[in-house]
Design a protein that fits this description.
The protein is mainly alpha-helical and 194 residues long. It has two domains: 1-53, Arc Repressor Mutant, subunit A, CATH 1.10.10; 57-189. It contains nine helices and no strands. It has helices spanning 2-25, 35-42, 46-52, 56-77, 85-97, 99-107, 114-134, 140-163, 168-189. 23% of the residues are buried. The mean pLDDT is 79.
Length: 194
Amino acid sequence: MSLYKRDARSEQTEKKFKQNLIALSETKPLKKITVAELCKLCKVNRGTFYNHYNDIEDIIEKIEDDLFEQVKSILNDIKVFSFDENFFRKVIEIIKNNLHIVQSVTKENFLQNDLLRKIYDFAKNKFISEFTEFVSDINVNETEDLFVYTFGGSIALFMSGIKDPNIIDQAARKADYYNKLIMQKFIADKNLKV
């Protein structure tokens, strides 16, 4: 029983650190936030911080891991090769709910961001596996090219929507529409058996 309370308290403390780090990131870049100012905002001492994290980067990594696990659970439930609107809606919902932290962790080095790389790699492997199962007579290189093109275009539309939350849903619909066209054309041109 006491172990459960301690775990619940630890989770609450970690949640507090994450929420306050996100709040601080609204006023300054993540790389300039110190442990001391985060502890002051959380009203805890540095020892409490170090019981949970090694440094600020450690919290950022945990936040990214949390978001990745949410996206991964969506990808596990949906056939990725279809890139259907449902997939984008769910991913958009996660990003909308965590918009500021997503923008904070991706803006400094968008192309090298660990969170985006994890999502990309996971989706790519799932896409290749599922698409080659779904479509006979296709090689892995063609499947990978198809993924890179459709996913890259979808992400570009999606990222334009992140800048303006009013058009984020429209970006998902556009990505869905264009991906369906590309997939249908690809399958028809290759005379693939579906």
